[in-house]
Amino acid sequence: MKKLLTGLFVLSAVSVAVAKEVNVKIVGTSDVHGRMVPWSYGADVEDKSGSFAQIATYVKQAREKTPDLILADIGDAIQDNQVEVFAKTLEKAKDNPVPKVLNAMKYDFFILGNHEFNFGMENLDEIVKDIEAKTLTANFYHKDGKRYVEPTAIVEKDGVKLGFIGLTTPMSAIFEKDTGHLDDWKFTSPIEETKAQIADLKAKGVDSIIVLAHMGIENENNIPDTGVEDLVNAVDGIDVIIAGHMHKNVPSETIKDTVITEPHRYGTMVSEVDMVFDVSDDGKVKLLSKTATTIPVNKLEADPEIVKIYQPYHDELRALNNVVIGETANDMVPMEKIHGVSSAFAKDSGLSSFIHDVQLHYSGADVVSFAFDYETVRQPKGEIKKKDIIYNYRYAGGDVTVYELTGKQLKQYMEWSADYFDTIQAGDKDYRYNDVRGKSKYVTFDLFGGVSYKVDLRNPSSSKITELKLADGTPINEETKYKVGMNSYRYGQLSKQGGIFEGLKAPVLWESKVARGSEAGTIQNMMIDYLTNVKGGKIEGLSHNRWEIIGLD
Protein backbone atom coordinates (compact mmCIF):
# COMPACT_ATOMS: atom_id res chain seq x y z
CA MET A 1 0.00 0.00 0.00
CA LYS A 2 1.41 3.39 -0.95
CA LYS A 3 0.76 6.63 0.89
CA LEU A 4 2.08 10.17 0.88
CA LEU A 5 3.63 11.52 4.09
CA THR A 6 4.95 15.08 4.48
CA GLY A 7 6.16 15.49 0.91
CA LEU A 8 7.69 12.00 0.84
CA PHE A 9 6.32 8.90 -0.79
CA VAL A 10 6.20 6.08 1.75
CA LEU A 11 5.69 2.47 0.80
CA SER A 12 4.36 0.48 3.71
CA ALA A 13 4.90 -3.27 3.42
CA VAL A 14 2.45 -5.52 5.20
CA SER A 15 4.27 -7.66 7.73
CA VAL A 16 2.95 -10.84 9.21
CA ALA A 17 5.34 -10.70 12.12
CA VAL A 18 8.47 -8.83 13.12
CA ALA A 19 11.28 -11.28 12.54
CA LYS A 20 14.65 -10.83 14.18
CA GLU A 21 16.28 -10.87 10.77
CA VAL A 22 14.70 -8.85 7.96
CA ASN A 23 15.80 -9.53 4.39
CA VAL A 24 15.48 -6.83 1.74
CA LYS A 25 16.00 -7.42 -1.98
CA ILE A 26 16.34 -4.53 -4.43
CA VAL A 27 16.48 -5.12 -8.18
CA GLY A 28 17.82 -2.32 -10.36
CA THR A 29 17.78 -1.73 -14.11
CA SER A 30 19.33 1.16 -16.00
CA ASP A 31 20.07 2.47 -19.48
CA VAL A 32 17.75 0.01 -21.18
CA HIS A 33 17.50 2.56 -24.01
CA GLY A 34 14.37 1.44 -25.78
CA ARG A 35 15.04 -2.29 -25.68
CA MET A 36 11.43 -2.99 -24.81
CA VAL A 37 11.38 -6.40 -26.49
CA PRO A 38 14.20 -8.54 -27.95
CA TRP A 39 14.43 -6.69 -31.26
CA SER A 40 16.99 -4.39 -32.86
CA TYR A 41 15.04 -1.93 -35.00
CA GLY A 42 18.11 -0.60 -36.79
CA ALA A 43 19.20 -4.07 -37.89
CA ASP A 44 15.56 -5.25 -38.07
CA VAL A 45 16.42 -8.57 -36.43
CA GLU A 46 15.71 -10.34 -33.17
CA ASP A 47 18.23 -9.47 -30.46
CA LYS A 48 18.00 -11.53 -27.29
CA SER A 49 20.94 -9.90 -25.55
CA GLY A 50 18.55 -8.00 -23.29
CA SER A 51 15.23 -6.15 -23.00
CA PHE A 52 12.54 -5.09 -20.55
CA ALA A 53 10.53 -8.12 -21.70
CA GLN A 54 13.30 -10.50 -20.63
CA ILE A 55 13.85 -8.56 -17.41
CA ALA A 56 10.13 -8.97 -16.72
CA THR A 57 10.59 -12.74 -16.87
CA TYR A 58 13.48 -12.48 -14.40
CA VAL A 59 11.45 -10.26 -12.06
CA LYS A 60 8.47 -12.62 -12.09
CA GLN A 61 10.76 -15.49 -11.16
CA ALA A 62 12.41 -13.45 -8.41
CA ARG A 63 9.03 -12.40 -7.00
CA GLU A 64 8.06 -16.05 -6.59
CA LYS A 65 10.71 -16.21 -3.86
CA THR A 66 10.57 -12.58 -2.73
CA PRO A 67 7.11 -11.12 -3.42
CA ASP A 68 7.95 -7.75 -1.87
CA LEU A 69 11.24 -7.07 -3.65
CA ILE A 70 11.82 -3.44 -4.57
CA LEU A 71 12.19 -2.70 -8.29
CA ALA A 72 13.88 0.46 -9.56
CA ASP A 73 14.86 1.77 -12.98
CA ILE A 74 17.73 4.25 -13.00
CA GLY A 75 16.80 6.07 -16.21
CA ASP A 76 17.49 6.43 -19.93
CA ALA A 77 14.48 4.33 -20.87
CA ILE A 78 12.66 6.49 -23.45
CA GLN A 79 15.44 6.97 -26.02
CA ASP A 80 17.25 4.75 -28.55
CA ASN A 81 16.31 1.62 -30.48
CA GLN A 82 13.71 3.89 -32.09
CA VAL A 83 11.50 4.13 -29.00
CA GLU A 84 12.15 7.88 -29.22
CA VAL A 85 9.63 7.96 -32.08
CA PHE A 86 7.01 7.81 -29.33
CA ALA A 87 8.46 10.77 -27.42
CA LYS A 88 9.33 13.29 -30.12
CA THR A 89 5.87 14.85 -30.38
CA LEU A 90 3.35 15.71 -27.70
CA GLU A 91 0.75 13.50 -29.35
CA LYS A 92 3.08 10.51 -29.33
CA ALA A 93 4.25 11.21 -25.77
CA LYS A 94 0.66 10.93 -24.57
CA ASP A 95 0.67 7.30 -25.69
CA ASN A 96 4.28 6.43 -24.91
CA PRO A 97 4.88 2.70 -24.38
CA VAL A 98 7.50 3.02 -21.64
CA PRO A 99 5.03 3.84 -18.83
CA LYS A 100 2.85 0.93 -19.93
CA VAL A 101 5.77 -1.48 -19.68
CA LEU A 102 7.05 -0.10 -16.36
CA ASN A 103 3.54 -0.26 -14.92
CA ALA A 104 2.99 -3.84 -16.08
CA MET A 105 6.27 -4.82 -14.41
CA LYS A 106 5.21 -3.02 -11.21
CA TYR A 107 8.27 -0.84 -10.82
CA ASP A 108 8.48 1.00 -7.51
CA PHE A 109 10.88 3.77 -8.58
CA PHE A 110 11.94 5.53 -11.74
CA ILE A 111 14.91 7.92 -11.86
CA LEU A 112 15.28 10.52 -14.59
CA GLY A 113 18.24 9.87 -16.87
CA ASN A 114 19.84 12.49 -19.09
CA HIS A 115 18.10 11.11 -22.18
CA GLU A 116 14.69 11.64 -20.60
CA PHE A 117 15.24 15.35 -21.33
CA ASN A 118 15.92 14.89 -25.06
CA PHE A 119 12.38 15.70 -26.17
CA GLY A 120 11.48 18.72 -24.07
CA MET A 121 9.80 19.11 -20.71
CA GLU A 122 6.23 19.22 -22.03
CA ASN A 123 6.65 15.81 -23.64
CA LEU A 124 8.41 14.47 -20.54
CA ASP A 125 5.52 15.68 -18.38
CA GLU A 126 3.13 13.49 -20.36
CA ILE A 127 5.35 10.45 -19.99
CA VAL A 128 6.17 10.86 -16.30
CA LYS A 129 2.56 11.40 -15.27
CA ASP A 130 1.68 8.01 -16.78
CA ILE A 131 4.36 6.17 -14.78
CA GLU A 132 2.84 4.65 -11.65
CA ALA A 133 6.26 4.17 -10.04
CA LYS A 134 7.50 7.08 -7.95
CA THR A 135 9.75 9.24 -10.09
CA LEU A 136 12.61 10.56 -7.96
CA THR A 137 15.31 13.14 -8.63
CA ALA A 138 16.64 15.27 -5.79
CA ASN A 139 18.90 17.61 -7.75
CA PHE A 140 16.61 18.93 -10.50
CA TYR A 141 14.62 22.16 -10.07
CA HIS A 142 12.64 24.70 -12.02
CA LYS A 143 14.41 28.06 -12.02
CA ASP A 144 11.73 29.31 -9.60
CA GLY A 145 13.10 26.85 -7.03
CA LYS A 146 10.34 24.24 -7.26
CA ARG A 147 11.37 20.61 -7.65
CA TYR A 148 10.21 18.73 -10.72
CA VAL A 149 9.60 15.47 -8.83
CA GLU A 150 10.05 14.19 -5.28
CA PRO A 151 13.64 13.84 -4.06
CA THR A 152 13.23 10.82 -1.80
CA ALA A 153 10.96 8.00 -0.70
CA ILE A 154 10.71 5.75 2.34
CA VAL A 155 9.94 2.06 2.22
CA GLU A 156 8.91 0.40 5.48
CA LYS A 157 9.49 -3.35 5.72
CA ASP A 158 9.06 -5.44 8.87
CA GLY A 159 10.22 -2.70 11.19
CA VAL A 160 12.99 -1.42 8.90
CA LYS A 161 12.75 2.02 7.31
CA LEU A 162 14.65 2.31 4.03
CA GLY A 163 15.35 5.76 2.61
CA PHE A 164 15.75 6.09 -1.16
CA ILE A 165 17.34 9.15 -2.79
CA GLY A 166 17.14 9.76 -6.55
CA LEU A 167 19.90 11.62 -8.42
CA THR A 168 20.40 12.59 -12.05
CA THR A 169 23.74 13.47 -13.61
CA PRO A 170 24.16 17.25 -13.72
CA MET A 171 25.83 16.66 -17.10
CA SER A 172 22.28 16.62 -18.46
CA ALA A 173 22.36 20.42 -18.54
CA ILE A 174 25.46 20.33 -20.74
CA PHE A 175 24.02 17.69 -23.05
CA GLU A 176 20.87 19.79 -23.58
CA LYS A 177 22.61 23.17 -23.70
CA ASP A 178 21.87 23.86 -27.36
CA THR A 179 18.33 22.45 -27.40
CA GLY A 180 16.59 24.97 -25.15
CA HIS A 181 14.85 22.08 -23.38
CA LEU A 182 16.27 23.00 -19.98
CA ASP A 183 16.46 26.78 -20.25
CA ASP A 184 13.97 27.14 -17.39
CA TRP A 185 15.50 24.38 -15.29
CA LYS A 186 18.63 23.78 -13.26
CA PHE A 187 20.63 20.94 -11.74
CA THR A 188 22.22 21.24 -8.33
CA SER A 189 25.14 19.44 -6.72
CA PRO A 190 24.47 15.74 -6.10
CA ILE A 191 26.78 15.93 -3.08
CA GLU A 192 24.98 18.84 -1.43
CA GLU A 193 21.52 17.44 -2.21
CA THR A 194 22.44 14.04 -0.80
CA LYS A 195 23.77 15.56 2.41
CA ALA A 196 20.53 17.47 2.88
CA GLN A 197 18.30 14.51 2.04
CA ILE A 198 20.16 12.11 4.34
CA ALA A 199 19.71 14.55 7.21
CA ASP A 200 16.00 14.82 6.43
CA LEU A 201 15.54 11.07 6.12
CA LYS A 202 17.43 10.37 9.33
CA ALA A 203 15.21 12.87 11.11
CA LYS A 204 12.26 10.81 9.92
CA GLY A 205 13.72 7.68 11.50
CA VAL A 206 15.17 6.00 8.43
CA ASP A 207 17.49 3.09 9.23
CA SER A 208 19.32 2.71 5.91
CA ILE A 209 20.11 4.94 2.93
CA ILE A 210 20.02 3.71 -0.66
CA VAL A 211 20.93 6.08 -3.51
CA LEU A 212 19.53 5.48 -6.99
CA ALA A 213 21.80 7.53 -9.22
CA HIS A 214 21.86 8.05 -12.96
CA MET A 215 25.59 8.65 -12.64
CA GLY A 216 28.62 6.44 -13.13
CA ILE A 217 31.27 5.68 -10.54
CA GLU A 218 34.01 7.91 -11.97
CA ASN A 219 33.53 11.58 -12.75
CA GLU A 220 32.42 12.17 -16.33
CA ASN A 221 34.91 14.07 -18.49
CA ASN A 222 36.89 14.75 -15.29
CA ILE A 223 34.19 17.14 -14.06
CA PRO A 224 33.89 17.02 -10.24
CA ASP A 225 30.62 15.92 -8.62
CA THR A 226 29.45 13.94 -11.65
CA GLY A 227 30.37 10.46 -10.38
CA VAL A 228 29.24 8.58 -7.29
CA GLU A 229 32.82 8.02 -6.14
CA ASP A 230 32.99 11.74 -5.38
CA LEU A 231 29.61 11.43 -3.67
CA VAL A 232 30.68 8.59 -1.37
CA ASN A 233 33.96 10.29 -0.49
CA ALA A 234 32.12 13.49 0.45
CA VAL A 235 29.02 12.09 2.16
CA ASP A 236 28.79 9.61 5.03
CA GLY A 237 25.91 7.28 5.66
CA ILE A 238 25.15 5.79 2.24
CA ASP A 239 24.77 2.01 2.46
CA VAL A 240 24.11 1.13 -1.18
CA ILE A 241 24.19 2.88 -4.55
CA ILE A 242 22.62 1.52 -7.71
CA ALA A 243 24.35 3.53 -10.43
CA GLY A 244 23.86 3.93 -14.18
CA HIS A 245 24.62 6.22 -17.11
CA MET A 246 28.12 4.98 -17.95
CA HIS A 247 26.98 1.66 -19.46
CA LYS A 248 29.31 -0.45 -17.32
CA ASN A 249 28.78 -3.85 -15.79
CA VAL A 250 29.69 -3.37 -12.13
CA PRO A 251 28.58 -6.41 -10.11
CA SER A 252 29.82 -4.95 -6.83
CA GLU A 253 32.36 -2.35 -5.80
CA THR A 254 32.88 -1.02 -2.30
CA ILE A 255 34.06 2.51 -1.55
CA LYS A 256 34.20 3.60 2.09
CA ASP A 257 31.79 0.82 3.11
CA THR A 258 29.26 1.83 0.44
CA VAL A 259 28.34 -1.01 -1.91
CA ILE A 260 27.94 0.16 -5.53
CA THR A 261 26.50 -1.78 -8.45
CA GLU A 262 25.62 -0.86 -12.04
CA PRO A 263 23.62 -3.08 -14.44
CA HIS A 264 25.50 -2.42 -17.69
CA ARG A 265 23.25 -1.25 -20.57
CA TYR A 266 20.50 -2.15 -23.03
CA GLY A 267 18.66 -4.41 -20.58
CA THR A 268 21.40 -7.03 -20.69
CA MET A 269 21.80 -7.16 -16.90
CA VAL A 270 19.95 -6.45 -13.69
CA SER A 271 21.61 -5.39 -10.46
CA GLU A 272 20.48 -7.38 -7.46
CA VAL A 273 21.08 -6.06 -3.94
CA ASP A 274 20.46 -8.12 -0.81
CA MET A 275 20.45 -6.51 2.63
CA VAL A 276 19.97 -8.25 5.98
CA PHE A 277 18.88 -6.33 9.09
CA ASP A 278 18.54 -7.29 12.72
CA VAL A 279 15.47 -5.84 14.44
CA SER A 280 15.58 -6.11 18.22
CA ASP A 281 12.56 -6.40 20.49
CA ASP A 282 12.79 -2.71 21.34
CA GLY A 283 12.72 -1.75 17.66
CA LYS A 284 16.39 -0.95 17.19
CA VAL A 285 17.65 -1.80 13.72
CA LYS A 286 21.14 -2.91 12.74
CA LEU A 287 22.39 -3.61 9.23
CA LEU A 288 24.07 -7.01 9.33
CA SER A 289 25.13 -7.42 5.70
CA LYS A 290 24.76 -6.01 2.20
CA THR A 291 25.77 -7.66 -1.04
CA ALA A 292 25.31 -6.88 -4.71
CA THR A 293 25.77 -8.59 -8.04
CA THR A 294 24.67 -8.30 -11.66
CA ILE A 295 22.75 -11.03 -13.45
CA PRO A 296 22.45 -11.43 -17.26
CA VAL A 297 19.04 -12.00 -18.81
CA ASN A 298 20.09 -13.05 -22.31
CA LYS A 299 19.05 -16.67 -21.77
CA LEU A 300 15.55 -15.74 -20.63
CA GLU A 301 12.51 -15.69 -22.87
CA ALA A 302 10.50 -12.51 -23.29
CA ASP A 303 7.50 -12.12 -21.02
CA PRO A 304 4.36 -12.50 -23.19
CA GLU A 305 2.55 -9.69 -21.37
CA ILE A 306 5.24 -7.15 -22.25
CA VAL A 307 5.44 -8.41 -25.83
CA LYS A 308 1.68 -7.95 -26.20
CA ILE A 309 1.82 -4.41 -24.79
CA TYR A 310 4.57 -3.41 -27.21
CA GLN A 311 3.24 -5.23 -30.29
CA PRO A 312 1.48 -2.23 -31.94
CA TYR A 313 4.56 -0.05 -31.37
CA HIS A 314 6.79 -2.83 -32.70
CA ASP A 315 4.70 -3.08 -35.86
CA GLU A 316 4.74 0.70 -36.35
CA LEU A 317 8.53 0.91 -36.02
CA ARG A 318 9.18 -1.95 -38.41
CA ALA A 319 6.94 -0.38 -41.04
CA LEU A 320 8.58 3.02 -40.57
CA ASN A 321 12.14 1.71 -40.69
CA ASN A 322 11.69 -0.46 -43.77
CA VAL A 323 10.84 2.47 -46.04
CA VAL A 324 13.28 2.52 -48.98
CA ILE A 325 14.98 5.91 -49.34
CA GLY A 326 17.59 5.14 -51.98
CA GLU A 327 20.12 2.69 -53.33
CA THR A 328 23.86 2.21 -53.61
CA ALA A 329 25.59 0.67 -56.61
CA ASN A 330 28.37 -0.80 -54.45
CA ASP A 331 29.00 -2.27 -51.03
CA MET A 332 29.83 0.73 -48.85
CA VAL A 333 31.87 -1.04 -46.14
CA PRO A 334 34.24 -3.96 -46.83
CA MET A 335 33.31 -6.78 -44.46
CA GLU A 336 36.85 -7.47 -43.31
CA LYS A 337 39.22 -6.79 -40.48
CA ILE A 338 42.56 -5.10 -40.95
CA HIS A 339 45.05 -6.17 -38.29
CA GLY A 340 42.24 -6.97 -35.87
CA VAL A 341 40.22 -3.80 -36.52
CA SER A 342 37.05 -3.41 -38.57
CA SER A 343 37.80 -1.89 -41.95
CA ALA A 344 35.36 0.93 -41.07
CA PHE A 345 37.78 1.98 -38.32
CA ALA A 346 40.94 1.31 -40.33
CA LYS A 347 40.39 3.19 -43.59
CA ASP A 348 38.05 5.46 -45.49
CA SER A 349 34.99 3.59 -46.72
CA GLY A 350 32.05 4.37 -48.97
CA LEU A 351 29.98 4.90 -45.84
CA SER A 352 32.36 7.30 -44.09
CA SER A 353 32.83 9.18 -47.37
CA PHE A 354 29.05 9.46 -47.78
CA ILE A 355 28.55 10.85 -44.27
CA HIS A 356 31.38 13.33 -44.82
CA ASP A 357 29.78 14.43 -48.10
CA VAL A 358 26.51 15.02 -46.25
CA GLN A 359 28.20 17.09 -43.55
CA LEU A 360 30.20 19.15 -46.03
CA HIS A 361 27.21 19.78 -48.30
CA TYR A 362 24.95 21.25 -45.63
CA SER A 363 27.53 22.97 -43.42
CA GLY A 364 29.82 24.57 -45.97
CA ALA A 365 32.72 23.63 -43.71
CA ASP A 366 36.29 23.05 -44.87
CA VAL A 367 36.74 20.01 -42.65
CA VAL A 368 34.17 17.81 -40.88
CA SER A 369 34.27 14.91 -38.45
CA PHE A 370 32.11 12.21 -36.93
CA ALA A 371 32.57 8.85 -35.18
CA PHE A 372 30.98 5.48 -35.80
CA ASP A 373 29.49 4.12 -32.59
CA TYR A 374 30.27 0.51 -33.45
CA GLU A 375 32.65 -1.47 -35.63
CA THR A 376 29.72 -3.42 -37.08
CA VAL A 377 28.50 -0.74 -39.50
CA ARG A 378 27.57 -2.10 -42.91
CA GLN A 379 25.76 -1.15 -46.09
CA PRO A 380 25.64 -3.75 -48.86
CA LYS A 381 24.88 -2.70 -52.42
CA GLY A 382 21.23 -2.35 -53.28
CA GLU A 383 18.40 -0.73 -51.37
CA ILE A 384 19.09 1.72 -48.56
CA LYS A 385 16.28 1.78 -46.03
CA LYS A 386 15.67 4.18 -43.19
CA LYS A 387 16.73 1.47 -40.74
CA ASP A 388 20.16 1.40 -42.42
CA ILE A 389 20.68 5.10 -41.72
CA ILE A 390 19.67 4.55 -38.09
CA TYR A 391 21.89 1.50 -37.74
CA ASN A 392 25.00 3.09 -39.22
CA TYR A 393 24.72 6.48 -37.52
CA ARG A 394 23.27 5.67 -34.10
CA TYR A 395 23.16 9.04 -32.33
CA ALA A 396 19.65 10.27 -33.15
CA GLY A 397 20.40 13.76 -31.82
CA GLY A 398 23.75 14.13 -33.56
CA ASP A 399 24.28 17.53 -35.20
CA VAL A 400 26.92 19.47 -37.11
CA THR A 401 28.20 22.68 -35.58
CA VAL A 402 30.92 24.58 -37.42
CA TYR A 403 33.69 26.21 -35.38
CA GLU A 404 36.54 28.43 -36.48
CA LEU A 405 39.83 26.70 -35.67
CA THR A 406 43.39 27.29 -36.77
CA GLY A 407 45.31 24.64 -38.66
CA LYS A 408 47.31 24.01 -35.50
CA GLN A 409 44.13 23.42 -33.49
CA LEU A 410 42.72 21.14 -36.18
CA LYS A 411 45.90 19.06 -36.03
CA GLN A 412 45.63 18.92 -32.22
CA TYR A 413 42.09 17.61 -32.54
CA MET A 414 43.10 15.00 -35.09
CA GLU A 415 46.00 13.84 -32.93
CA TRP A 416 43.66 13.50 -29.96
CA SER A 417 41.41 11.34 -32.10
CA ALA A 418 44.31 9.22 -33.36
CA ASP A 419 45.37 8.48 -29.78
CA TYR A 420 42.28 6.29 -29.51
CA PHE A 421 44.83 3.75 -30.78
CA ASP A 422 48.02 2.88 -28.91
CA THR A 423 51.42 3.15 -30.54
CA ILE A 424 52.57 -0.16 -32.05
CA GLN A 425 54.98 -2.12 -29.87
CA ALA A 426 57.55 -4.71 -30.93
CA GLY A 427 55.83 -7.98 -31.74
CA ASP A 428 52.37 -6.49 -32.29
CA LYS A 429 50.39 -8.19 -35.03
CA ASP A 430 47.20 -6.20 -34.54
CA TYR A 431 46.32 -2.56 -33.90
CA ARG A 432 45.22 -1.91 -30.32
CA TYR A 433 42.72 0.54 -28.87
CA ASN A 434 43.92 2.60 -25.94
CA ASP A 435 43.02 0.69 -22.79
CA VAL A 436 41.10 3.61 -21.25
CA ARG A 437 39.44 5.20 -24.27
CA GLY A 438 38.69 1.87 -25.91
CA LYS A 439 36.60 0.86 -22.89
CA SER A 440 34.78 4.17 -22.61
CA LYS A 441 31.03 4.54 -23.05
CA TYR A 442 31.60 6.51 -26.25
CA VAL A 443 33.83 5.90 -29.26
CA THR A 444 36.21 8.86 -29.55
CA PHE A 445 37.96 7.89 -32.77
CA ASP A 446 36.73 10.62 -35.09
CA LEU A 447 36.94 10.30 -38.86
CA PHE A 448 37.74 13.47 -40.79
CA GLY A 449 36.36 14.57 -44.16
CA GLY A 450 37.48 17.40 -46.41
CA VAL A 451 41.08 16.37 -45.76
CA SER A 452 43.43 13.53 -46.68
CA TYR A 453 45.76 12.04 -44.07
CA LYS A 454 47.28 8.92 -42.60
CA VAL A 455 47.23 7.69 -39.01
CA ASP A 456 50.71 6.23 -38.47
CA LEU A 457 50.57 4.05 -35.37
CA ARG A 458 54.33 3.61 -35.36
CA ASN A 459 54.58 7.15 -34.04
CA PRO A 460 54.19 8.18 -30.39
CA SER A 461 51.20 9.96 -28.90
CA SER A 462 50.33 13.34 -30.41
CA SER A 463 52.34 12.71 -33.58
CA LYS A 464 50.40 10.02 -35.43
CA ILE A 465 48.78 12.26 -38.09
CA THR A 466 50.92 12.44 -41.24
CA GLU A 467 50.56 13.70 -44.82
CA LEU A 468 47.75 16.06 -43.78
CA LYS A 469 46.26 18.10 -46.62
CA LEU A 470 42.93 19.50 -47.66
CA ALA A 471 41.08 17.24 -50.08
CA ASP A 472 42.27 19.39 -53.00
CA GLY A 473 45.89 18.78 -52.02
CA THR A 474 46.54 22.12 -50.28
CA PRO A 475 48.71 21.62 -47.19
CA ILE A 476 47.18 22.57 -43.84
CA ASN A 477 48.79 25.75 -42.53
CA GLU A 478 49.09 26.12 -38.75
CA GLU A 479 48.11 29.79 -38.80
CA THR A 480 45.27 29.59 -41.31
CA LYS A 481 41.73 29.61 -39.92
CA TYR A 482 39.47 26.78 -41.06
CA LYS A 483 35.76 26.07 -40.77
CA VAL A 484 35.61 22.78 -38.86
CA GLY A 485 32.28 20.97 -38.44
CA MET A 486 31.69 18.45 -35.67
CA ASN A 487 29.07 17.29 -33.21
CA SER A 488 28.54 20.04 -30.62
CA TYR A 489 28.89 17.47 -27.84
CA ARG A 490 32.34 16.59 -29.14
CA TYR A 491 33.44 20.22 -29.00
CA GLY A 492 32.14 20.41 -25.44
CA GLN A 493 34.27 17.40 -24.58
CA LEU A 494 37.35 18.94 -26.17
CA SER A 495 36.91 22.33 -24.45
CA LYS A 496 36.01 21.03 -20.97
CA GLN A 497 38.34 21.07 -17.99
CA GLY A 498 41.24 18.81 -18.89
CA GLY A 499 40.34 18.77 -22.60
CA ILE A 500 42.78 19.65 -25.36
CA PHE A 501 40.94 22.93 -25.95
CA GLU A 502 40.21 23.63 -22.27
CA GLY A 503 38.42 26.96 -21.95
CA LEU A 504 38.59 27.73 -25.68
CA LYS A 505 35.46 29.49 -26.93
CA ALA A 506 35.93 29.05 -30.65
CA PRO A 507 33.65 31.18 -32.83
CA VAL A 508 30.53 29.30 -33.90
CA LEU A 509 29.92 29.83 -37.61
CA TRP A 510 26.96 27.54 -38.33
CA GLU A 511 24.66 25.13 -36.48
CA SER A 512 22.64 22.51 -38.31
CA LYS A 513 19.82 22.51 -35.75
CA VAL A 514 19.52 26.30 -35.93
CA ALA A 515 19.74 26.47 -39.71
CA ARG A 516 17.50 23.49 -40.45
CA GLY A 517 15.51 22.90 -37.26
CA SER A 518 15.98 20.48 -34.39
CA GLU A 519 14.76 17.47 -36.39
CA ALA A 520 15.88 18.26 -39.94
CA GLY A 521 19.23 19.38 -38.54
CA THR A 522 20.23 15.96 -37.22
CA ILE A 523 22.84 14.00 -39.13
CA GLN A 524 20.41 11.11 -39.60
CA ASN A 525 17.84 13.35 -41.27
CA MET A 526 20.45 15.20 -43.31
CA MET A 527 21.68 11.82 -44.59
CA ILE A 528 18.13 10.96 -45.66
CA ASP A 529 17.55 14.37 -47.26
CA TYR A 530 20.91 14.30 -49.08
CA LEU A 531 20.33 10.81 -50.46
CA THR A 532 16.73 11.51 -51.47
CA ASN A 533 16.77 15.11 -52.67
CA VAL A 534 20.38 15.91 -53.55
CA LYS A 535 21.45 12.59 -55.06
CA GLY A 536 18.03 11.60 -56.42
CA GLY A 537 18.00 8.40 -54.41
CA LYS A 538 21.08 6.88 -56.08
CA ILE A 539 24.73 6.87 -55.06
CA GLU A 540 27.78 4.91 -56.19
CA GLY A 541 28.77 4.21 -52.58
CA LEU A 542 32.49 4.34 -53.31
CA SER A 543 35.20 5.48 -50.93
CA HIS A 544 37.14 8.72 -51.47
CA ASN A 545 40.16 6.86 -50.03
CA ARG A 546 41.34 9.94 -48.19
CA TRP A 547 42.49 8.39 -44.91
CA GLU A 548 43.84 5.15 -43.50
CA ILE A 549 45.66 3.67 -40.53
CA ILE A 550 49.21 2.47 -41.27
CA GLY A 551 52.01 0.87 -39.31
CA LEU A 552 51.72 -2.89 -39.75
CA ASP A 553 52.38 -4.73 -42.99
Per-chain topology:
Layout: E1 2-5, E2 8-12, E3 21-29, E4 39-40, E5 45-46, H1 52-65, E6 70-73, H2 90-93, H3 97-104, E7 109-111, H4 121-129, E8 134-136, E9 140-142, E10 152-157, E11 160-168, H5 171-175, E12 185-187, H6 190-203, E13 208-214, H7 228-234, E14 240-242, E15 249-255, E16 258-263, E17 269-279, E18 285-296, H8 304-321, E19 324-328, E20 337-338, E21 341-342, H9 343-346, H10 350-363, E22 367-370, E23 382-385, H11 386-392, E24 401-406, H12 407-418, E25 447-449, E26 451-456, E27 465-470, E28 481-486, H13 488-495, E29 508-511, H14 512-515, H15 523-534, E30 538-539, E31 547-550
Helix pairs in contact: 3-8, 10-15
Main traits of this protein?
553 residues; 5'-nucleotidase,  domain 2; eight-stranded mixed sheet; 2 domains; alpha/beta; disordered N terminus; six-stranded mixed sheet; Calcineurin-like_PHP; nucleotide-binding; Purple Acid Phosphatase, chain A, domain 2; 15 helices
Produce a short descriptive summary:
The protein is an alpha/beta fold and 553 residues long. Helices cover 25% and strands 28% of the residues.
Global geometry: globular
- Tally of contiguous helical segments: 15
Helix percentage range: 25-40%
User: CATH H-level name of the largest domain... which superfamily?
Assistant: Metallo-dependent phosphatases
The CATH topology assignment of the largest domain is Purple Acid Phosphatase, chain A, domain 2
The CATH first-level class of the largest domain comes to: Alpha Beta
Task: Outline the biggest β-sheet.
Answer: 8 strands, mixed
Overall number of structural domains = 2
Average pLDDT number: 95
Assess the beta-strand content as a share of residues: 25-35%
Biggest sheet: strand arrangement: 1-2-10-11-13-14-16-15
Total strands: 31
CATH architecture name of the largest domain: 4-Layer Sandwich
Radius of gyration: 25 Å
**Secondary structure category:** alpha/beta
